[in-house]
Known about the structure:
By secondary structure, this protein is of the alpha+beta class. It is built from 7 helices and 11 strands. Strands 1, 2, 3, 4, 5, 6, 7, 8, 9, 10 and 11 form an 11-stranded mixed beta sheet that branches. Helix 1 (62-77) runs parallel beside helix 4 (127-136). It is globular, with a radius of gyration of 18 Å. The model has no long low-confidence stretch (mean pLDDT 94).
Amino acid sequence: MPRLIAYGRVSPTGLLSWAPGGVLRTSWAELDAGPVGEFGVPKLRAKFFFDQPFTKYGRMDPLCKVAVGAAQLAVKASNNLAGLERDEVAQVGGTMLGCLEVDAQFEATRRAGAPSPALFVYTLPSMFQGEIAIAYHLRGRCTLLSTGELSAMTALATGIRWVEKGRAKHVLVVAADAAGPAARELGPDFTPQSAAAAWLLSGDDAPGRRLSDVRFDDQPGDALVLQAGELSYGVTFLDTLEPLLLGEGSPRVYAERGGQGVSFQIG
């Protein structure tokens, strides 16, 4: 039975990490992070997440920074993947915007006649998964999903299914979006903001929240239909799902956008 054994989240409200022992919430003010920018989070720094210097973090693009930050919160909450074989830890990623912002920046340098090699490295939407694999020496299978506003839900459901069907022993699911000027051009339906969440799933019989019975494109039936919260883009539904995952109840949850649905059982 798949179990959620650790969780981390980065959002405009600050940082959150969870393990069966409890929840730790940290505001940006507590971190002395400075003002939250117009795109939802302050300038992210390695010291917000890592106990040891991590110089490479400062060179990452915004998507990698927010995704790696969320992953680190989950990894740290799990006591640094204690008891998990890193060869057996797979990754599932979810994003709606992908590398949109870096693509726009790189295109500007190309048009100016001086394409930036530093930006070009990050013109790949799965780059954050590569950074995570390098940082934590993960060697399991890996995939990236982009299903619009359902991206986080689809990624988490896929991770649950991988464990449930025996396709992976453990899965680190990371859903992330980094918004900037390019995202603002998508229209008034979205407030440009950055956020990420990481769910560490395991098939081992360890303490955690049971997750099961994934269904795609199904009707909600008697499931609790999730409403969109404050977060948007591919992490839509993340903030309304969070208290249900970390709470004590056992609901079936369902999220839908554009006629596509995702559901799974909690508990």
